Every structure is written in C-alpha cells, then in structure tokens.
Amino acid sequence: MTCFFVMSLLFGLTFGQTASLCAPSEYIIHVEKRECAYCLAINTTICAGFCMTRDSNGKKLLLKSALSQNVCTYKEMLYQTALIPGCPHHTIPYYSYPVAVSCKCGKCNTDYSDCVHEKVRTNYCTKPQKLCNV
C-alpha cells in the first residue's frame, strides 16, 4: 500500500499540470469615460480556468519547488485598441485592452496581471451601450 501511495504522489507531482484546464475564454469588458456619451461593450478573451496546485500543509516534508500555487495566466497576448463613441473632441476616445492568445498555468506576473483575489465587482454600463466585436 505504501509503494502505491508513493508512486501516486510522484506521478501527481510530475504530471499534474497536464490535468489543468487553463485556456482563453470569451469575456465582455464594459468601458466608459465620464466625458463620453456611450459605454462600450468589448468582446475579448481572457485566461481563465483551473490550475493544479499543491497543498502547503506538507511543506516540511516536501521540497519548496513541489509546493506550487499556480494561476491561469497569459502565455501569449496582444493588445487591441477600441474607439469609444460619443466622445467630445478634447477627450482621447481610445481604450487599449489585452487579448489572450494562449494561456498557461504559472506564477502570477504583476507586470500585467492583478494577482490579488478581490471581491467580485459587477461589470456593467451606466450609460447607453454600444457593442464592439473585435
């Protein structure tokens, strides 16, 4: 029984990432500026899904490298720019946003991701809505 447990543990540590379900997912971003007449609903893709993590309760028994807490994050992304309609001439009517091309399970990079789990915020418009399909 002990041999089976050890082999299962080693297999899980070695091949655990292959069971991850991290992939680009469709998402709608709502963008509005105070000066502009409309809210823009942008169809884009973000990285979302499940990544295998390892319980840190066994940190005294396992190597530090075996205690990963991975998140679903961008492997490859590009930026697109949308024009917010109904903006006066003195306002910059452009909004740039990331588009996930491919995703991976890995450490959260604070250069382009918010790595803090925060309360769920409602993503909505307070102005009339225009849809942008990019």
TrEMBL record:
The keyword Disulfide bond applies. It is found in: Secreted. InterPro entries: Cystine-knot_cytokine, Glyco_hormone_CN, Gonadotropin_bsu, Gonadotropin_bsu_CS. CDD domains: GHB_like. Residues 1-16 form the signal peptide. One of its GO terms (biological process) is G protein-coupled receptor signaling pathway. The keyword Disulfide bond applies. GO terms for cellular component: cytoplasm; extracellular space. Pfam families: Cys_knot. Keywords: Disulfide bond, Glycoprotein, Hormone, Secreted, Signal. PROSITE patterns: GLYCO_HORMONE_BETA_1, GLYCO_HORMONE_BETA_2. SUPFAM superfamilies: Cystine-knot cytokines. Heterodimer of a common alpha chain and a unique beta chain which confers biological specificity to thyrotropin, lutropin, follitropin and gonadotropin. This is Thyrotropin subunit beta. The gene is Tshb.
